[in-house]
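Reviewer 2 asked us to include a model.

Predict the structure of this chain.
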Amino acid sequence: MTSRTTPGLTRFNTAQESDARAALREICASGAWGSAVLAHRPFPDSAALHAASDAAMAALTAEDLAEAMVAHPPIGRPVPGDPASVREQRGMAGASGALRAAMLEHNLAYQEKFGHVFLICATGLSAEQMYDAIRHRIDNTPEHEREIVRRELGKINRIRLTRLAEGAPP
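Predicted model (structure tokens):
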């Protein structure tokens, strides 16, 4: 099997460290994650980039995860003008008013219980699937939920890193 470096990955590998760090910050707001990924440049292919991201994600502390989550808007309220936020939450776009209201209510209860936004890799999920997930996850312990958040954030980062490697905007 041969490794294939895409144009986007080549740009990332050869970028000044400050520019590469800024690109990673758009993908994940955790400084520890970004530093750990940067330490492995240059990447021969997307698989190596994803492996570095996965290893960095596994090493994040609770504080690092909290830092990463600050950049994520609540489900159902994507950041206006942020194409990644809108794209990733596309499944909520056609939700009924009743489902949007229920999601907001559950978002607030989740945030009150856990102290952070409900984080889910929403790409490809319907509004109903996201609502079902929040309804089930709100009963988790904080420790269990933190590990679910870690996995979901890892999925989000992989999707965004793929876009970076392909040369698409995050």
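The radius of gyration is 17 Å. The chain has a mean pLDDT of 92. We have added this to the supplementary material.
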